[in-house]
Amino acid sequence: MSAPLAEFDLRGGTRLKLYSNRLVHDGPGTLEIFPYGHLASVRVAFERDPRKLNWAIGLAIAAIVLAVVSGPLQRWLAGLVANPGEGMQREVLITALNALMAFAGMLPKIALFLAAIAIALVALFVLGRTTFTLAFAATERAFGTFGRNRRLIEFAEILGERLAERGK
Q1: Which CATH number fits domain 6-48+129-167: 2.30.29.30, 3.30.70.580, 2.20.140.10, 3.90.1150.10?
Q2: Are 41 and 135 in contact (CB under 8 A)?
Q3: pLDDT band at 165 (very low <50, low <70, confident <90, very high)
Q4: How much is the pTM?
């Protein structure tokens, strides 16, 4: 077998190798060979997933609401515990209100957790993803990597040039 014209390492120990007449996806337990004649087109794109940003905004709003509601809810419940009424229902009411106060006390921690997830989603949105797609007659095969990956873009350009040469 001849030396590859170009190579690109993907996650998980797999790699794409470009030869003069084929593209090989090689990895642990995987070997796919794509002859140029079977490829209809090649596409590479840097993309940002707007759903991640939407989720981040939603979680940030939920975190703010929980953080704002926590203090007043705790004070209101403490006021109810201070004046619970009379009789057997008093003990049940005090226990239930104390449980609700404990939950209200956890709201700032839950809000902080939601805010951390929102920040992570924003970071993933900003980071984006470079996706390399091989199109065949009836299907597509996509390979992706986080961030704007110049090496994957260059790899796709080399493959595109090889396909263009074969089409002449």
Answers
A1: 2.30.29.30
A2: yes
A3: confident
A4: 0.70
